Each structure stands twice: as C-alpha cells, then as structure tokens.
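Milestone M4 deliverable, item 7.
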Amino acid sequence: MMNELDFRRLAAAAGELMELPDPEGFGQGEPTDISGVVAEIYLDNDMPSRAILVLDVGKVKAEHKAEAYEVLLAIQGMLHPTHDCVFDHDGIDDMVLVRCALPLFSDATAHDLAIVIGICVQQVRTWRETLLSGWLAGPDISAVTSSSATADASSIFFA
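Output delivered:
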C-alpha cells in the first residue's frame, strides 16, 4: 500500500520524466494535457494499492452519440475482466472519460508509471483516430497541439 504523500511524489516524478509543464500539479491530481489527451491521476482512497487514471476521450457529437456509446460499451466489454477500465460521462462538460485503475506495487517506479500512463494516452488517441473518428466535437481532437502547455511525452513512452 502507498500513502498519499509517496504517491504524489511518484506521480510528480513520472510527470517530470514525461516532461510535463507542471509535474507537481500532475502529482497533486490536476488535469494535465499529455500529447493532446487531458489526464489526471489520484490515489484510490478505497484501495491505496492502486491509482486511478482519468483520461478525456472527448465530447461526442449529438448525432453520433448512440453509435459512439455502442462502440465504447463494446470496447469496455472487451477490456473486462483483464483490464480495470470503465467509460464514464462528465455531465458538466459533456465529455466521455475513461477511468483506469492502475496497480501500485511496492517497487513501482516513476518510469513504470510514466510508461503505463503513456500507453493509456496512446490508446485514447488511437480510439479518437479510428473507432471514434468523425464522431467527436470540436477541433481535430486527436491532434497534438503545439502549445507549450501540452507535453509530447512520446519520447519516454516509445523510446
């Protein structure tokens, strides 16, 4: 089991490895843009042996909601029971989210956590560009922005 302070340090160190603009903020659970996907991470208070990673999949266009939700439910069915991920809906911002429970082993390192986060971010980008292509609202949501507030952490993920 990990305590909150150690987890925040671990997440911040992972944020540093991913070259996030505010690794300390990421470690505190602040939403952070990672390669075009907004993500936040926090220690699961009910199970301190795991972290919860929340990723914004995107806002689905009204005319495609039924199709998109059908695809997302099919994905969720394929992930279960080997992956502890569920799709969710943010009713305030009308966004689809994916919540993934990440086991925190006693010997977990910042590098380990950064790799897992990178894989999850890349998976969301892949869903946006393939299965959900054309169904998400807003500008090209799958594109990595060139803003300095966006970290392109691919170097740590796929080195």
